[in-house]
Amino acid sequence: MPLSEHEQRLLEQMERALHQEDPKLATTMRQGSDRTINGRQVLLGSIGVVIGLAGLLGGVMTNLVVLGAVGFLFMLGGTLFIGAAFREPSKPVSADSAADGGGVSASSKPKSQSKAKGSSGFMSKVEDRWRKRRESDGF
């Protein structure tokens, strides 16, 4: 059902207000999600879960522990396979992040640079205590 002209004007005003108040959120909402679902992977994972459930039930009914364990592993593998179908694809390095960080991702930076300022003080104190303890005990 299409929106009336009045409703469209109100929606546009709300969009402009959102963009003025929080441009980052507005940009995120406008772009949407890059998440895609791999239907084949979901189907194969579901088949694995059903086969695993049948194996697990068969193992319980016949008192074969090995069959139950294999069924459980099939169920676990199928579930993980389904979960992998819903993950977001890795995003390429944009020009903005390349200019800011020189193309270095946060995961490849040293740990001391990627930590938040508030937690690094606490962790440095703990590390200093540990280092002093090791030096005094002769480890």
Radius of gyration: 26 Å
**Strand count, sense and closure of the main sheet?**
none
**Spans of at least 5 consecutive residues with low confidence:** 95-117
Query: Which word captures the global form?
Result: flat
Protein architecture, described:
The chain has 139 residues and is mostly helical. Helices cover 74% and strands 0% of the residues. It contains seven helices and no strands. α1 packs across α2 (23-31) and α3 (39-62) packs antiparallel against α4 (65-85). The model is unreliable at 95-117 (pLDDT under 50).
In short, what is this structure?
With about 140 residues, this protein is mainly alpha-helical. The chain has 7 helices and no strands.
Helix and strand arrangement:
Layout: H1 5-21, H2 23-31, H3 39-62, H4 65-85, H5 95-101, H6 111-114, H7 117-137
Helix pairs in contact: 1-2, 3-4
Which features does this protein show?
single chain; 0% strand; mainly alpha; 139 residues; 7 helices
